[in-house]
């Protein structure tokens, strides 16, 4: 007898990444771009996604990958749907005939962020709040640079 998927209250970013077929850095990047996507964090600082967060991730994925919205266009569409009270699903996209045209930003040829410390310096640092924040920013920088490479290719 095959095992059925166990429904949980909370999912890790790894589980969400696997379920949605998205890289973890994409999920973290989307958190910075879409204010509606903000999973809670546990005491260890790990993201804890709920079912509604996963549904939102899938909706954003549909907007960006299938409907070919830009990030800005998807952000505006989410805001518009929330204000109208429509559910965030593919059906609510089909109900509305108009789309919001959004100009694509120019592609940046060099990294936007410049860090004063190298990644290895921060990883070896003590674990004060300031050091953890620096480590987080450097990891985010690396993730965004990788995302930029993917976009440019």
Inertia-based shape? globular
Q: Low-confidence runs (pLDDT<50, min 5 residues)?
A: 95-101
Strand content: under 5%
Binned, the helix content reads 40-55%
The CATH topology of the largest domain is what? Multidrug-efflux Transporter Regulator, Chain: A, Domain 2
Give the total of beta strands: 2
State the end-to-end CA separation: 44 Å
Tally of domains = 2
What does the average pLDDT come to?
76
The SSE string, one letter per element, is: HHEEHHHHH
Sheet with the most strands: spatial strand order? 1-2
Major sheet description? 2 strands, antiparallel
CATH class of the largest domain, anyone?
Mainly Alpha
How many DSSP H or I helices?
7
Radius of gyration: 18 Å
Name of the CATH architecture of the largest domain: Orthogonal Bundle
Overall structural class, as computed from helix and strand content, comes to mainly alpha
Quaternary structure type: single chain
Topology overview:
Blueprint: H1 13-20, H2 24-33, E1 40-41, E2 47-48, H3 51-66, H4 71-84, H5 90-95, H6 119-123, H7 129-152
Antiparallel strand pairs: 1-2
Describe the structure concisely for a colleague.
This protein has 153 residues and is mainly alpha-helical. It has helices at 13-20, 24-33, 51-66, 71-84, 90-95, 119-123, 129-152; strands at residues 40-41, 47-48.
């Amino acid at each position: 007898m095959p095992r059925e998927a166990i429904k949980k209250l909370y999912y890790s970013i790894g589980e969400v990444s696997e379920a949605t077929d998205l890289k973890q850095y994409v999920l973290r990047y989307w958190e910075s771009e879409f204010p509606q996507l903000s999973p809670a964090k546990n005491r260890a600082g790990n993201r804890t996604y709920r079912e509604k967060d996963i549904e939102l991730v899938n909706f954003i994925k549909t907007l960006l990958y299938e409907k070919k919205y830009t990030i800005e266009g998807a952000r505006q569409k989410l805001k518009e749907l929330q204000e109208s009270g429509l559910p965030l699903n593919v059906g609510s996209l089909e109900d509305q005939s108009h789309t919001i045209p959004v100009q694509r930003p120019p592609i940046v040829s060099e990294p936007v962020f410049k860090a004063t410390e190298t990644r290895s310096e921060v990883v070896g640092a003590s674990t004060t709040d300031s050091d953890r924040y620096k480590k987080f920013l450097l990891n985010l920088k690396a993730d965004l640079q990788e995302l930029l490479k993917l976009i440019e290719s």
